[in-house]
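User: Could you check the structure of this?
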Amino acid sequence: TQPNTTVLITPRANIVGHSANVTYSVTLNAGQTYSARTTSLAATPSLAGSIISSNKPVAVTVHSGALSSAGCMSTTGDQITTTEHIGTDYIIYKNNAFNERIYVLATQNATTVEVYKSTNSNTMINWGETHQITTNVNDTVIYIKTNKPVYVYHLSGNGCR
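Assistant: Sure, the predicted structure tokens are below.
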């Protein structure tokens, strides 16, 4: 970030030092970082759908630690982009992982999510809501089509290492 960057954060869940749905600000200087973490160790509530804005460019990294699948522990993370750069069409190539998941996060109300795979489905979600898509052995390629821009987060693995 640049000197005197003001970041406004509205967390979707309670985080250490701040309540859910209450906006607060953090001022960062060049080279500084800020980390927000939920007060709960459970999978829900989640910070998905939190709002982050700033007066200068910043990088936002999302991560989750200690994910458990079939007795294996994993950490996952990704750096997300601004809503100006997200889309409405996504193609996901399924891995052969156990318990693979795809999450679609709406950025606007009345977002329709059409999922084309071995069994097709459609649903509607609103701003800040997440739709979870599970995969099965018959899925190879999953196509997601929405009527409004969404974030898509694909979690997969490759066994215990």
